[in-house]
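Work package 3, deliverable 3.1, input record:
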Amino acid sequence: MSGRPSSPDGRVTHPVPDLHPLPVPAPPAVGIVPGGTWTTVAGTQVGVAQGDIKGNKKLRDDVAVLVAPGVAAALTTTSSAAAAPCRWTRARVPGPVHAVVVNAGNANAATGAQGHRDTAATAAAAAAVLGCPADQVLVCSTGVIGVPMPMQRLLPAVERAAGHLSADGHHLARAILTTDLVEKEVCVELDGVTVAGVAKGSGMIHPGMATMLAFLVTDAQVEAPVLQALLADAVDRSFHCITVDGDASTNDTVIVQATGQGRPCPEGSEAHAALAQALFAACRHLARAIARDGEGATTLVECVLHGTADDATARAAARAVLRSPLVKSAVHGRDPNWGRVVGALGAAGVQGLDHLDLDLCGIPVLRDGQPVAWDEAAASAALQAPEVRFTARVPGPGLGVAWGCDLSADYVSINADYRS
Amino acid sequence: MSGRPSSPDGRVTHPVPDLHPLPVPAPPAVGIVPGGTWTTVAGTQVGVAQGDIKGNKKLRDDVAVLVAPGVAAALTTTSSAAAAPCRWTRARVPGPVHAVVVNAGNANAATGAQGHRDTAATAAAAAAVLGCPADQVLVCSTGVIGVPMPMQRLLPAVERAAGHLSADGHHLARAILTTDLVEKEVCVELDGVTVAGVAKGSGMIHPGMATMLAFLVTDAQVEAPVLQALLADAVDRSFHCITVDGDASTNDTVIVQATGQGRPCPEGSEAHAALAQALFAACRHLARAIARDGEGATTLVECVLHGTADDATARAAARAVLRSPLVKSAVHGRDPNWGRVVGALGAAGVQGLDHLDLDLCGIPVLRDGQPVAWDEAAASAALQAPEVRFTARVPGPGLGVAWGCDLSADYVSINADYRS
């Protein structure tokens, strides 16, 4: 097949003045610390243990304790079925926090009043070993919904994890996996401020807050309310912009702890700006890693939308495109069926689509709402890459970027019998 | 395995006063006309033709003309990328309508100004043969987005279809299929009012209006604005309650034509009530048929939600449950993982979930927000049925019923390379 441009129906409908690809925003400029992980930040320790929380006798690290005495901020799921640990955590941030307990294998969601008692007991067990108030221990759980937490196995595991702390953060990234295939960790540095993080999540990913667990830590010296505001902004532009399957979880949680052993970051300072940028970069890195590791996924998909009323509208619409099973299936099949992107933008209610410009992997396919001659062979070839991008433009000052993945038959296999 | 009730973790968390299954609303009471189809209604005719609209030389009926001189009402997609034929149709209803032209193979969406000219030319071509004003011909298209309509093939096919009318409505149901596996048609009768309909749709099904094409017809003598109101109400409780993949289409259209050759149905009359009930029954039948025939689906899934502020809220939440890929995958795997239903209700923002009652195929699994002892073997067995039901109850006066289907690997195969 030649590279000669041709329209899908063999004709060009109108002459087009400008077929340059649409612009793509640059990623944040920060230094990545090679091999860095959560414990790269000074003053932090982690402990892990095998709790057999799922009760299937497959022994693996499934309980972790993250110690970073200082302050913390957090965002938890917006689900009205928020799990007990999410409600415990959100009642205690922003504020002084010593440690975080996390378990895989059981979500402690839809577990009634007993679930709340179990979360409090979990925090108390860790606090007793660590020598801090139970109110300074946050709790995160992930796993099956609607099954009472097996406290007879969880509590001893929490005590073992809290009693054997080390500076090896890589254990942590492994301990919080469920159906994840790869560990997700990052450490970035900017202007003397270090931010590190780990995350888990590969299904039930469509953050109504953040649809997964992510643990960030920084050495910055920062007040808890300031940290909370910085986290909210970073999450809006990172975890809130990813989708794997459109399902918000009952247990989504993003926590950032700050040890205060590093640079003071008062509001308005250069250091504060560096912290904001570094925190966003770490969140963006982890969010993209979650999308790339979506259940059954083979391709990271990015959608850039220029226009709409504001950035938040553009981000939501870009994410809606990547939520579409039809768009996701087309990417999986390497089918340059860009009409489905238009369909998804329309279903999301984006205004001004009569003037839509659209690029598929940098190849213009639609200008001012009209199909243009495009090189289908080049588009099919571009779709073979491990990262695929749709770039769209409608009238308006907004700009949004979202990340997702393709939909494969493996997604169905993974989720058809999750519990066994 | 015995049928003895046991909780997932081998313990019962609290005693439960009432473990009767939750109630399920009865379907509307109407008479189904055996073998009835669109042309069972007096005064109607259809014509079909092979247009090779997709341009792949696979000859099949892909153009149809539906003649029912009288008045019509219609609802079209809420997508902001609404296709040219949807905009043409919505500008002409409610009002006098002679016929509807429909084609498969090309959606005439994202086709710019040329798309609007093509729709007008299509209506004019049919009108010239039928001897009516072009403004009394509605147009519906379904198929690939972003490809100019091949008018050199469409127009002759429209003329052939309009020129060879017959009373064999079964041709019609076949002509409008794309990835559908089964024809969807129904004819109901109540108190001397007849309503018949055909529909297509199996993917891109999540009505922002109705996410598919459905053509209804009645012999009722009714004014166009009254018919429009009746259609809007029936669609709210039928097509708006189904979801296959959460994608609203650019081309969704439901049209009802009324020939006026039957009973007068003035507002407030018994006949009006019968028309309302019959129209709802026909819409409900077709909507369920679309959900059952969802791309790759093996199971019709019904979600009944008692409670929430009002019926509309309950319907939207019930549909959100059936949109969840995790719920759909679990049904496909016959995995009684009802926690995912709780997760989906929470993601939909349903209030009062701390007091949630939930049944899985009539088996109580949650009462007042607490897991109860349930018979997992019986639940797994119930999930083998061709129809599966979740019934939920939260505080509030609303009631909603929605229909969907499971998510299979075949869905991905069907959509990974739709265009070829």
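Chain B has eleven helices and 15 strands.
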